[in-house]
Amino acid sequence: MPETDAATGPGARHLLQDYLERLCSELRGLSAGEVATYIPELGRADPEGFGIALAMVDGTLAAAGDAAEEVTIQSVSKPFMYGAALEALGREAVMARVGVEPTGERFNAILLDEENNRPFNPMVNAGAIAVSALLSDGSPAEDELRMQGLFSDLAGRPLEIDLTVFGSEKETGHRNRAIAWLMLNSGMIEGDPDAVLDLYFKQCSVLADCRDLAVMAATLANGGANPLTGRQVYSAPVAQDILSVMATCGMYDYAGQWIFDVGLPAKSGVSGMLCAVVPGQFGLAVWSPRLDAVGNSVRGIEACRRIAADFGLHAFAPHLDPGAVIRREYSSAEVASCRERPQADCALLEREGAALRVIELQGPLYFASAEKAVRRAGALAERGGTLVLDFHHAGSIDRAAAALLGQLPAALAGRGCQLCVTGLGPRHESSGLARQLEEAPAGHVTRPAGIAEAIEAHEEALIARAQPPREARLARLSGAALFAGAAPADLAALERMAVRLSFAPGERIIARGDTARAVFVLAAGQVDISAVAPDGTARRVSAVGPGQSFGEMALLEDAPRASHADAAGAAECYAFPAAALRELLAARPALAAAVYANLSRSLAARLRQANRQIIALD
């Protein structure tokens, strides 16, 4: 198996690795149980052998003890072959030959369900032999190649068959032979029972270590996809079916006590192998050949019990808080767009801004958490307006959550509320939610690029409804916010100083670090202001339109530019040389008073909005 780095970072030791090593050391003292001897080759196992491995669904692997010791997987093969039959033939065909009910009997009981004349489940020998019959086409060589390929795909590396153990099982497997002939008589298997048994004995004789088995279990935890290779070995519904039968039947007549104590889908084998699965999280494998009276590894059971208890992994324990799904919510009155606007527009938006509400979701979305989000969205929709539902911080979305959320567009539209969905990304594709939103009736839902874009579009719509359309161009400098209140003679002097510049879409007007040589007033178009993070990435923090100014700090200090300014489309600007403008203001006190008062009001408005946003987003 390819080595997987268990460290979380350079030089860091994986805490899980330390935990498994401590657990392995503590449980080595358990000496109860005996090595299986009814298959002679298994009796050769070292009774003190003990290994543990855990594979996360992201491919991270941690292992301790004798986790690299290869042994035959024996009955741990059964759920994986059952999955192969489900994939190949479908649930109905497999269910006709093998049931899913626990037996309460020994794993090798010669027993069929009297009502249906079939094995009770695929985890006991009779059911596993019936599954092997379903997967056999009568050619032993081809059967072996397919079976070996299945387990290699599951482990993420080529696995071999221990032919010595296979020969030992074949030579001594009289009870299994009796089961096969009984099922031939009942019609549950067809063809040569010896060919079917050969496949069954070979699947039990596949060699794997704990790391291999942990990856196999993690494949089930990962919806059928191998976490190391990405190969989709089983479909998600088949992986679910496998885990369901493992949970109820995987530990033989100990299954009830196991699910009560440990609460995880699991499967054991008489070689001392045991695997358990925490769906969506990881696969666990333990090997220790000392078995209890019903054929389960003594140390394996205790290791699983300890891990489940220490980390609260029991399937029926409450794991998630659906109330935590809402990260925060706010209105556009509290968090406005980064667009610089005239004072009259800002006043309008402060009055009407609550008509848009934002709900930011977080964490995994499942039925209960999605229901919480849908219920809150419905409550906010009573006010009408616009609702933004953001998934940027949301984790996985399961089918139940997608089904609930997919009903929101129509439900909100019926209440006069427009739904905007933002933040859906590649990690959410498997849920099908994006497809459901695309199929919603026209006008029920929009998909802006982000929350900022949704808020800005809402603001533009409010302004357009409240005021007649305005020319998207500054006609004269008297309409510039920076020069509001200036005398006609002062405006004339400013016009003589101004240099008219045109910029192409995307053209940089100011670069961070430039010497501040000019102040700009936008005449037409839009200019985006972007701050630069330490890693060099730029993020838009403001946008100005006609009549708004940028680069004004050149009037106050000679420091290098702190941000980029780029033309969002074709743009025209008035540029005022900073040194000349400062001289003009010094010579005209009334103009200076007006300009600095306007600049102070603009900075104060930005500060007030920043404070509201900090409070809303805290």
Quick structural gist:
The chain folds into three domains: 15-310, Beta-lactamase (3-Layer(aba) Sandwich), CATH 3.40.710.10; 322-466, 2-Layer Sandwich (Transcription Regulator spoIIAA); 477-617, Jelly Rolls (Sandwich).
Walk me through this protein's architecture.
By secondary structure, the protein is an alpha+beta fold. It folds into three domains: 15-310, 3-Layer(aba) Sandwich (Beta-lactamase); 322-466, 2-Layer Sandwich (Transcription Regulator spoIIAA), CATH 3.30.750; 477-617, Jelly Rolls (Sandwich). The chain is 40% helix and 17% strand. The protein has 21 helices and 20 strands. The chain has a five-stranded antiparallel sheet. The chain has a five-stranded mixed sheet with strand order 8-9-10-11-12, sandwiched between helices. It has a four-stranded antiparallel sheet with strand order 13-20-15-18. Strand 1 (51-56) and strand 2 (61-65) form a beta hairpin. Helix 4 packs across helix 7 (174-186) and helix 6 packs across helix 8. The longest helix has 29 residues, at 589-617. It is elongated. 44% of the residues are buried.
